[in-house]
Amino acid sequence: MRILLAEDDELLGSGIRAGLAQHGFAVDWVRDGMAAERELATGAYQACVLDLGLPRQDGMDVLRQARARRIATPVLVLTARDAVPARIAGLDAGADDYLVKPIDLHELAARLRALVRRAHGQSEGRLAAGNVELDPAAHRVWQGGAPVDLSNREYDLLHALLLNAGRVLSREQLEQRLYQWGSEINSNAVEVHIYHLRRKVGTALIETVRGIGYRIGPTDP
Fold it and tell me: What pTM value is reported for the model?
């Protein structure tokens, strides 16, 4: 999952980025409110971790502007403002969740997974289609009960398709979910990952919608 982190504290920001990476998240990190607003507007992220005390533009203003523009990206507010009125103001402004510093990275990762699940209408922790099952918390995949060894890109691709089961995702949308800033992307990268993924989980699971993209069909076995 690709996450936007908006945090101006260098030590905390680097720690969060490294910690979330260990939980399987791809993190793009910005350090001021104007950059956060710009990146949120791209729609490239599955969730955003937003500090309120940002330079150039306050995080609360970033949040209000995003919701006013109908940007639906789940936002977890991360702040030192621990007073109840501040938390209420953040939630009323459109935040989906709220954590007060200092934080536990395991809890942050779990909350982000829950936000992304809810945003895609998923109630269960594990995602499944046919005889394939994926556990985002454990970062593991099974087919017919047997573990499947996937590369990080293959895992992220399968995760994105399962979260959007029944919906077609274009190559551009999948690239957004797979690659962080500055990553070199070959023109056929998604196709190559799809090919290898099909070899490991079966050719019937992922459907090619010609000229549009890829999708996973009904989730019933």
Answer: 0.79
